[in-house]
């Protein structure tokens, strides 16, 4: 019995180079013992030229399975390293929605050439998907959908399903349409099989949960998963069925959206492709813009410190508490922003709830500030005296209250102006709260300590 190869052995062989026929045979033998998940790991962790060498030694079925599981950006990198004849076979075997996402990652000239190589029906379906905006659910639906007519007997419906079973994206939930292809309902395959052959499809269909093809992909995917659907018909402006969204596509959309939100909350952008195989410049590009923006905004904090430099010279001990106060304000704002952003995403909060969110975060911030302020007052008073303790306690109360309100408010403002709430990310909120918190801190210190 052949023992599974070690991933490290395959990677090392690729790194050494596989120019000879003997080395290629050895690579093929090693790759044949690896499961698909391990092959995907290797392809995502080596440069595209090495990935192409490994890909060429895979058998056809394994190669197709692996290619379909790669992210569109990784597929594009691999295509650039493969020969034209190999690419043509890959593109032809992809589903139209997967093909459209791949074309988005390729230069226009390459995508056009590949499109011309498709047979007319595949080209028509791919063009239909590409006709929708990139952020719409139409880009992620499959046009390979089996529809049933509401006036058809069940026996004819089952015959239609059998005739198209090899080309359908799914048959477990089937849209029911009228003569104009307008959506009338849906019927499950189980119900269809359990019904008398002479019964009409319209008599057993149920109400459909559908979505317009131009709707935002994230909104549709969240509703899809929240309703625990198997599939969802996608319709045009006249309610005609143009495609179907399946569970795996909805999950993929949410994984991509969550990754984007997580990156932005950390002050970065997602980058196409896998981390280990991505060129350094691609990772740098995903981070540099936010670092520049945050670096410029941090100048506000420096200017505030310069403005209150004279007061710091009068009471030097005030400088010791700056990291504590700015850190607490930033963390409080981040917590509020994260909570409200999630509530927006899952539909628990809407823009019209802004006054309620502000009032709620005001109270939450005040309670947090009271607790932290009491602790800060007690500890600072013991070490530095009652006046300093009072300054620290009042500042923590004020900063926590302000930061919670700002953190809860910014995602709603972003949604109102049509921006992504995640853009108002944690580093941005931290920088804002740092500058504002310092103004509050030195203002309270001036009032309590009678500083000029």
UniProtKB/TrEMBL annotation:
Family from the record: Belongs to the SLC41A transporter family.
How does the UniProt record describe the way this protein sits in the membrane?
Multi-pass membrane protein
Q: Which residues form the CBS domain?
A: 141-203, 204-260
Indicate where this protein is primarily found.
membrane
Q: Does the keyword Transport apply?
A: yes
Q: Which NCBIfam families does UniProt cross-reference here?
A: mgtE
Could you tell me what this protein is called? Magnesium transporter MgtE
Q: Name one Pfam family in it.
A: MgtE
Q: Which organism is it from?
A: Tessaracoccus oleiagri
| Alphabetized InterPro entries for the sequence | CBS_dom, CBS_dom_sf, Mg_transptr_MgtE_intracell_dom, MgtE_N_sf, MgtE_transporter, SLC41_membr_dom, SLC41_membr_dom_sf
Q: Which residues form a coiled coil?
A: none
What job does the chain carry out?
Answer: Acts as a magnesium transporter.
* Keyword terms, alphabetized: CBS domain, Cell membrane, Magnesium, Membrane, Metal-binding, Transmembrane, Transmembrane helix, Transport
Give the UniProt subcellular location, in the record's own words.
Cell membrane; Membrane
Recorded superkingdom: Bacteria
Tell me, how does this one assemble? Homodimer.
Transmembrane parts of this sequence: 288-308, 362-384, 390-414, 426-449
PANTHER family per the UniProt record, alphabetical: MAGNESIUM TRANSPORTER MGTE
Q: Name one GO cellular component term.
A: plasma membrane
